[in-house]
User: Fold this.
Amino acid sequence: MAQVLNYINGTLQHALSGERLDNIEPATGQIYGSLPQSSDNDVALAFQAAKNAFITWRQTTLEQRSALLARIADLIDENLERLAQAESKDSGKPLSLAKTIDIPRASSNFRFFAHALTQFSSEAHESVGQNTINFTLRHPIGVVGCISPWNLPLYLFTWKIAPALAAGNTVVAKPSELTPVTAHLLAELCQQAGLPAGVLNIVHGTGASAGQAIIAHPEIKAISFTGGTATGAHIAKVAAPMLKKLSLELGGKNPNIIFADCDYPRMLEITLKSSFANQGQICLCGSRIFVERSIYAKFKEDFVSRVTQLRVGPPNHEVDLGAVISKEHRQKILNYIDLAQNQGGLLLCGGNKADVPQHPEGYYLEPTVIEVNDHLCRVNQEEIFGPVVTIMPFDSEAQVIEMANSVPYGLSASLWTSDLDRSMRFGQQLESGIVWVNTWLNRDLRTPFGGVKASGVGREGGFEALRFFTEPKNICISYKP
Ligand code: NAD
Assistant:
């Protein structure tokens, strides 16, 4: 049984109440471990540890801090196999995905910010002619809160923790209660790396209990959150009146726009991934596919034929799709598939629970393609977050831009074309934080990451993250000439 513990002041411990939650394996539908259900008292303990640790952590030299973060990155690499196995079991994602994407990215996050912190500089502004110079220092905020979702557990958890620590803050962090195991293993690696006690504290439990205690804590001055838009709005409601700094990375309903002049085989290959990687449970998945009418019939035939060949099965086998995160989530996705058909959508493939004989109780779903005739129908407007995509044709640039921008969200968009002018026109006009042209999920960690509209507030990545996790202080000195 995987027994997850809180990590507070350098030690692994139970919640003060002793209360625990079951941890269910999506691939089998069986309970296979448990985690602490933490509350205000545990968060208060974690906060105190972080507050004490801040006094010395903020004074560590950049070299010491960088070396510690790099050491954690090395330990993640050394434990790749163990972490990938744990991530796959905890989330239902294919082991191959955890091994090639999730865990390597977690170590990249630490290594990237280990380097970035040594390059992040203060600014000076000379007020020429006024005998004045301004120094803009960047100080850590203090104790900050990091809250992450279940779809890319260690990947997104470390994407927040690494820059927060790099900037000199100490952290109270909470992973999703649905996928707590790799955060527990990270705590062990931090101990091994010699991270001083209290610098990172990990508190497990539900959003309503442990999460709420973090966002409502009066002295946790910044919250970095990734998750659903409704949760993000709730966090803003609680935290904004307390004047906390907020970074909110929320939901998406991303368009994938395909023109006839694209590199067709490459587009088809990557569109399969952007539709169904991680069972479609990536906030950046392209769930609305718009295809230029001249190639629509061909695309429909080729795409559906490839989708029906995708292998669904136990995540530790050679499969393309594992299980979705929970029974409730699978039901929500199935409800959307019904709704699509009630609203005139045509099911082209999939649409059902997938039959996986080894694990009849696991949460498997067939990859599903639905042809829709109205870009405003609910399945084309609301985030489903599962292995379900819609397809529909378009006739002109203006029409597809209007359809692409018609949703409340604005996280990412993909465009397939060989026309450079068109890619610039779309880059300018698409309402999203990220536009990929002839590629998908292609990330340089120095670039800003985040969405517009209901997809969030603020940007992560590179110096944007280090700016978020620091307070600028301007010191203005007037001197006698
Ligand atoms: P969620 O909002 O339900 O939960 C996210 C985290 O917030 C979890 O740790 C949860 O316990 C916590 N939480 C819930 N209620 C809380 C509260 N009242 N106070 C504090 N914390 C609370 O989201 P989820 O279902 O875990 O993840 C799926 C969602 O995340 C999707 O909408 C997806 O698009 C989004 N997502 C966005 C990005 C991005 O970068 N924009 C990346 C991944 C996932």
Observations:
- The chain has 14 helices and 23 strands.
- Residues 346 and 371 are 5 Å apart (CA to CA).
- The first strand starts at residue 2 and ends at 3.
- The first helix runs from residue 40 to 57.
